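Dear colleagues,

As part of the handover before I leave the project, I'm documenting each prediction I ran so the next person doesn't have to rerun anything. This entry is a single chain, and its sequence is reproduced below.
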Amino acid sequence: MSQRSWMAHPVVGGIVGVFAGGLTVMLCEVLGHALFGTADPNDLSTITTPMLASVLASWILGAAVAGFVATHWTGARSIWPGTISALVLFAGSVATLFAIPHPVWMTVATVALMPAAGWLAASSSARATRTA
């Protein structure tokens, strides 16, 4: 088995996708905290809508990056590594939604947009790789 074959394995691509998506979430949340400040999660009155929106945007972008990177890494043989990578990040976001109280709009948007972003990014990566 050549070195390229194991590196292009869907499991490896999925791990790389989760790492890339997680790094994207982290960097975007740092930027959001720099722009909008931070608040005490135990005092909901200190959390503003722009703070929550920046976190939601970070999660959605992270899912999209995870889906794109994992699918591209595997050579676009399937969109499943990208979709599963995005769902791993989605599971982390859902855990956060349960751990810290969030408004309903953020919960609904997370459930609707994160899986969709991951799937769309994986699909577009697969199409781009197949046509190249």
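The helical segments are 3-7, 10-36, 49-73, 80-99, 104-131. The chain has one domain: 3-131.

All the best with the project,
I.
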